[in-house]
Amino acid sequence: MNDHDICRRPRQKEGYRLEQLDDELLLYHLGETTVVYFNQTASLVWQLCQGDRTVGEIIDLLCAAYPEAADRVRVDVSETMTHFLEARCIEWT
After folding, report:
1. Does residue 52 sit in helix, strand or coil?
2. N or C terminus of the chain with fewer C-beta within 10 Å?
3. pLDDT tens readout for residues 5-51
4. Rounded CA gap, 42 and 76, in Å?
5. pTM score of the predicted model
């Protein structure tokens, strides 16, 4: 993710499902062999990628929910978005 993506609105691509398997969260596409392993932060970010919030708004929302970890949240959201883009499981609206 680059700096100008902070103003863009990510949306989940159709066909992906998020499932919990033991202690892991897996995102997979029903028609492909793509599987993405998630941590709890990535799961929250995924759920917020509905096309109605910018990346910056997602960061602000999570920082407000976890103020003690605001610096880490910013880094985690940026890294998670990069991971989502590489896996091609989100698109910009």
Report:
1. coil
2. C
3. 999 999 999 999 999 888 889 999 988 888 888 888 899 999 999 99
4. 8
5. 0.91
